[in-house]
């Protein structure tokens, strides 16, 4: 069996109910990647859609040249830890940058690769093997090569109760749920052969300001009214994707002079001293967002992911400042 690198990884189908049996793994908030080191020593790192990621994650590529043998293919997730949790926005900051800029980001916020499948070893294709055998070989691979950071062996268990504890205990660190795999299943590139169960906390907020411009917002700043009717800041979004930018640009309008956020700025990253201007907007756009448990003094410390705009809700339907989300699993 000559080693081959699939064009895309196996995917996971969402489920509303956590399966009773299987191999359970944490669901990571990062970039899904296929990493390979060919027989000639060349390292390649590609996204699930085939985008070459070596320029953005040169630190991972350099570590592969240093630590990994030739003829290996890993399936995993590139993540960045910052402040005790996964920081997806710091991953996004690596994309579409110059090599020098990406290298600066790597020095400031090093990446890790969480490996959860071994698709090739010793230049042999392992994808036809059952998952349980591939998992055993992955564990042996980590042990044989004494791999440590930036390499992380993804935890796995067949104990459903233990997996449920992971969901509860690791959620504040940014673990989104669980991925469930059939121990007897072969690796099927491009097919939804795995299952994913996501734990979500969703709530509503008001768009109070944007960064960028009204025509092309890059980040949304969220607020809620307090008991006195004053709009209070509750958090900022992750970097908006092109779809969210287009939708938001069609809805936001410049704020009136009495908006309380005129003249304020926000930090580009949590804990950063670098400040950026915000453009206050009329607080009449309601967004449904996904939030985590890091909720203190009425605000979320970590970036918030926009799920959709709620055209059916009015500002008065949004919870008051200081109220957290009502969690919903699934």
From TrEMBL:
<dbReference type="InterPro" id="IPR012340">
    <property type="entry name" value="NA-bd_OB-fold"/>
</dbReference>
<dbReference type="GO" id="GO:0016874">
    <property type="term" value="F:ligase activity"/>
</dbReference>
<dbReference type="Pfam" id="PF01068">
    <property type="entry name" value="DNA_ligase_A_M"/>
</dbReference>
<dbReference type="InterPro" id="IPR044119">
    <property type="entry name" value="Adenylation_LigC-like"/>
</dbReference>
<comment type="similarity">
    <text>Belongs to the ATP-dependent DNA ligase family.</text>
</comment>
<protein>
    <submittedName>
        <fullName>ATP-dependent DNA ligase</fullName>
    </submittedName>
</protein>
<dbReference type="InterPro" id="IPR012310">
    <property type="entry name" value="DNA_ligase_ATP-dep_cent"/>
</dbReference>
<feature type="domain" description="ATP-dependent DNA ligase family profile">
    <location>
        <begin position="104"/>
        <end position="231"/>
    </location>
</feature>
<dbReference type="InterPro" id="IPR050191">
    <property type="entry name" value="ATP-dep_DNA_ligase"/>
</dbReference>
<keyword id="KW-0436">Ligase</keyword>
């Amino acid at each position: 069996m000559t080693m081959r690198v699939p064009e895309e990884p196996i995917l996971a189908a969402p489920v509303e109910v956590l399966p009773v049996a299987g191999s359970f793994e944490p669901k990571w908030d990062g970039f899904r990647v296929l990493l390979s080191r060919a027989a000639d020593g060349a390292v390649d790192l590609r996204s699930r859609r085939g985008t070459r990621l070596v320029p953005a994650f040169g630190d991972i590529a350099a570590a592969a040249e240093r630590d990994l043998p030739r003829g290996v293919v890993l399936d995993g997730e590139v993540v960045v830890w910052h402040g005790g949790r996964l920081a997806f926005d710091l991953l996004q900051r690596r994309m579409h940058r110059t090599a020098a800029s990406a290298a600066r980001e790597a020095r400031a916020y090093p990446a890790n690769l969480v490996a959860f499948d071994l698709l090739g070893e010793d230049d042999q294709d392992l994808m036809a093997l059952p998952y349980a055998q591939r998992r055993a070989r992955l564990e042996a691979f980590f042990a044989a090569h004494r791999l440590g950071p930036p390499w992380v062996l993804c935890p796995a268990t067949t104990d459903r109760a233990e997996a449920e504890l992971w969901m509860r205990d690791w959620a504040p660190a940014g673990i989104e749920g669980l991925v469930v795999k059939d121990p007897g299943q072969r690796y099927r590139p491009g097919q939804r052969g795995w299952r994913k169960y996501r734990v979500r906390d969703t709530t509503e907020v008001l768009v109070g300001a944007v960064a960028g411009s009204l025509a092309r917002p890059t980040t949304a700043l969220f607020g809620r009214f307090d008991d006195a009717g004053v709009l209070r800041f509750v958090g900022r979004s992750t970097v908006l994707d092109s779809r969210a930018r287009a939708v938001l640009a069609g809805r936001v309008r410049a704020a009136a002079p009495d908006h309380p956020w005129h003249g304020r700025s926000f930090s580009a990253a949590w804990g950063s001293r670098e400040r950026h201007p915000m453009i206050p907007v009329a607080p009449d756009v309601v967004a449904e967002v996904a939030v985590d448990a890091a909720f203190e003094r009425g605000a979320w410390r970590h970036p918030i992911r926009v799920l959709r705009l709620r055209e059916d809700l009015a500002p008065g339907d949004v919870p008051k400042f200081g109220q957290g989300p009502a969690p919903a699993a699934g």
